[in-house]
Specification:
2 copies of one chain form a homodimer. Chain A contains 6 helices and no strands. Chain A has 228 residues and is mostly helical.
Chain lengths: 228, 228
């Protein structure tokens, strides 16, 4: 009987883990599509990202409900409890990732044209690739309970911050050269900031994975060069 | 015996509610101090806001732990469960409010001087006052389980969005007039965006209060003029 209960908890947890995996894949896809829409000035694709954000919201509510039911039914402790709480936290971060993707999509529509100078778009693409890579790696780290991979993601956030800062400076120069660029540049600046924040959510998830597996917080102050 | 358990749950919930009240007051204070530091170019006060943000983080962890313990021990259902989940959600929003306050404080330090033209600072002050008012009202609505007050907060978010948009336009003009203003204006623009986002968290809390009391989501699409 005790064995039966243990197995059931594991099954519930496994389902919760797959739900997180599915949600993570979906949020990642929306973010990727938002970037494609931005780089190719594609308002239709941007509109699709905006409308699909609701699906991610529903996924989050579903995961939260399952996790709470699990806590109420099984009263998990120690690692089991940490796994269940991790699901709630990670679904919160993923909801924010999709939301930031939606913001990028809205700005893509507002900008109409993204005919920026080539180096700027290369910078945005590079930043977005780093962000997507961080998302992918941290979701893998979660699926495999791989703390080393999570620590890697956590450390790599400083690279995103550095690329963001250099992009910020380039946008500034561009705006100063010709004030007519300012309005569009600010949209792009906010897009870059949104990507940088997606990187922060990947880092949050890395911290959650570390805590879930070890029961300890990652102690060092997060290496971050973007303080603003 | 059953009576005893019911009373205990109510007591646990009361403690959770006071913890949210305390956290809300603290987050509100940090946000207020961040604004004062910004308006008076006070780097010492800004530094204090930055260092105190950790206290809010600790408060959130404490509330989350208490709520999870409550779910595991009492297996609450219906309104009791909604109240417990509301505590988790609201503490998440309050943590973000303090974090956004910290961002404003960091930019205050980065800007060094806030000798902007008077109308701009009046605009920032107005925006911040609206944000503070929304925070105060929604925390009262939570404490009193007042859905009408929560609905009021929810509706008033459009006013914050409108003030933000007008401030955004003014900043844009200022930047176009003299490119030397651009760098500082962008800091101020991000500060304004942070205040606008604090307003969004007040609206989130209003939605949580509504759901907690009624068991229904606020259905209308949130009236929002800031789409980007």
């Amino acid at each position: 009987m005790a064995q039966h209960i243990v197995t059931s908890f594991d099954e519930d947890l496994k389902e919760l883990n797959s739900a997180i995996g599915a949600m993570g894949g979906y949020a990642e896809e929306l973010f990727g599509n938002a970037i494609t829409a931005l780089l190719h000035s594609d308002p239709d694709m941007a509109q699709e990202v905006i409308s699909k954000d609701r699906i991610v919201d529903a996924m989050q509510r579903d995961i939260e409900e399952r996790a709470v039911l699990l806590i109420a039914r099984r009263q998990p402790v120690a690692q089991d409890l940490r796994e269940t709480m991790a699901a709630i936290r990670i679904s919160g971060d993923l909801e924010r990732v999709a939301d930031l993707g939606k913001n990028i999509a809205r700005r893509t529509i507002a900008m109409e044209s993204t005919a920026f100078r080539q180096t700027l778009m290369v910078g945005v693409e590079h930043l977005a690739q780093l962000g997507l890579q961080q998302m992918k790696q941290v979701l893998d780290a979660y699926a495999l309970r791989d703390t080393a991979a999570a620590a890697e993601v956590w450390k790599n956030d400083s690279e995103i911050d550095a690329v963001y800062t250099s992009l910020f400076r380039e946008l500034l120069t561009y705006m100063m050269e010709d004030p007519r660029n300012i309005s569009r540049c600010i949209h792009l600046l906010f897009c870059a900031k949104n990507i940088e924040r997606i990187g922060d959510h990947a880092t949050n998830i890395a911290e959650t994975v570390h805590y879930m597996v070890t029961g300890q917080q990652i102690e060092e102050e997060r290496a971050s060069s973007t303080r603003v």
